[in-house]
Amino acid sequence: MDYLTSSHGSTLFGSKDEIIQALNIAMGHYPKSASTIFSVGANKHFELAPATSERMSLGGGLQAIRGFFISVRSATCRILLNVQVKHAACYEEGLLGPLISAYLSHNDRNMVRLATFLKRMRVRVTHITRKNREGREIPRIKTITGLATPGDGHGLQHPPIVPKFAAGAKEVKFHLGSPEGQPSTSQPSVSQQNSAGKRGKKGKKPVKEGPEPAGDGYISVYDFFQRTHSITVTDPSMPVVNVGTRQNPSYLPSDVCVVLPGQPSGAKLTPGQTQQMIRFAVRRPAANARSIVTNGARLLGIVPPVNSTLLDIAITPKLIAVPGRVLTGPNVRYKDGKLGQTRSASWNMQEVEFSTRSKLSSWTTSSYRRRGRPTHGEMSRS
After folding, report:
1. Longest CA span, the chain
2. Interstrand relation of 257-259 and 94-95 (parallel, antiparallel or unpaired)
């Protein structure tokens, strides 16, 4: 503060950047540690369960969520906390099946784009339930790496059978004689099995997640979940997702996958989604100011004070006031001294003419037609 209040231009402070960085870390500690908040990058924070007014569906399995950006700035004689309203396009939480259907309906059922859209999405699987000693359910979280692809598990002793890209639950088959006998677990490759046999050592047996069906050979993902877990896949034509790798694939139907909240999507928005995002994000400054002093102050731990109390820093929970003035509009006179309409930051030339006229020797006009609307003729003169 001595540096910020100093009136000497030659005053130097070598640790300014380090202190600002430390304050940024301290002020961002609460939103990053709270279980009800997810962060995007270093300084953008959003609620996992936002109110209806703070989110909006974009279509195609995405929703826009309103959050806040926070950073510490040095100013003359004081330190400011910069808070801005930000928005993020996130996956819609819930069952994976409806999300896939919504995306395909907005993207001409393009399976290649779907695989890119789902990649790195985290889901909670529901076909197997585990509990700890206290009786609380332990969520099983998986990350989608893609869709079923021919050539998956190429190095395995019994690779899965995938007839086409983005195959469904009845088309994708795996071998029951694998060490796990499960579509959602991996098996060792041929080289790994040979090396284990040469060593002559017994490795730890993998835990079986449920009873293994009788018999051997290949079984479809659809039949396996119906026999083992009494789960009938709702739409067998919907592609199964791979939660393993290309080398050790693990296939799951969408019926047992629940999309976790608070996952930003890196997919490029369609024109329709971009239009929806603009409608949701573009607001008047007064609306953003209300969001900052109410939802923003609560979400960032400013009101009630959380981070500042621990560091003995006092934060004024209101926006700074900047003096301003409204300038009177200019008087613009046209032909015969008629005044133009200059009000509300607009310049309307209705019912006025220029003082001096001029002829245009050449001019061209063109019009464009939207879908479903009549065509306007093109005119030109040269």
Report:
1. 106
2. antiparallel
Q: Alpha carbon of 166 to those of 44, 99, 126, 199: distances in Å?
A: 35, 16, 22, 39
| pTM of the predicted model as reported, rounded to 2 decimal places | 0.74
Cβ proximity of 342 and 334 under 8 Å: no
DSSP collapsed to 3 states, 213-257: CCCCCEEEHHHHHHHHCCCCCCCCCCECEECCCCCCCCEECHHHE
- 195-206 burial string, b = 16+ CB within 10 Å, else e? eeeeeeeeeeee
Mean pLDDT of the chain: 84
Q: How far apart, in whole angstroms, are the C-alpha atoms of residue 283 and residue 355?
A: 40
Residue 317's Cβ-count burial label (10 Å; 0-12, 13-18, 19+) is middle
Q: Are 256 and 144 in contact (CB under 8 A)?
A: no
Q: 16-40: string of b/e by CB count within 10 Å (b at 16+)?
A: eeeeeeebbeebbebbeebeebbbb
Whose tokens are 């006009």? That residue is 365
Among 117, 167, 174, which residue's Cα sits nearest to residue 144? 117
> Do residues 37 and 47 make contact, with C-beta atoms less than 8 angstroms apart?
yes
d(CA 241, CA 183): 11
Q: What is the rounded CA–CA span in Å between residue 30 and residue 16?
A: 23
- Cβ burial of 15 (10 Å; 0-12, 13-18, 19+) is exposed
Q: How far apart are CA 239 and CA 254, in angstroms?
A: 8
Q: pLDDT tens digit string along 180-204?
A: 445 654 454 444 444 444 444 454 4
**Residues 31 and 45 sit within 8 Å (Cβ to Cβ):** yes
Q: What one-character-per-residue DSSP string does 44-105 give?
A: EEEESS--GGGEEEEETTEEEEEEEEEEEEEETTEEEEEEEEEEEEEEPPEEHHHHHHHHHH
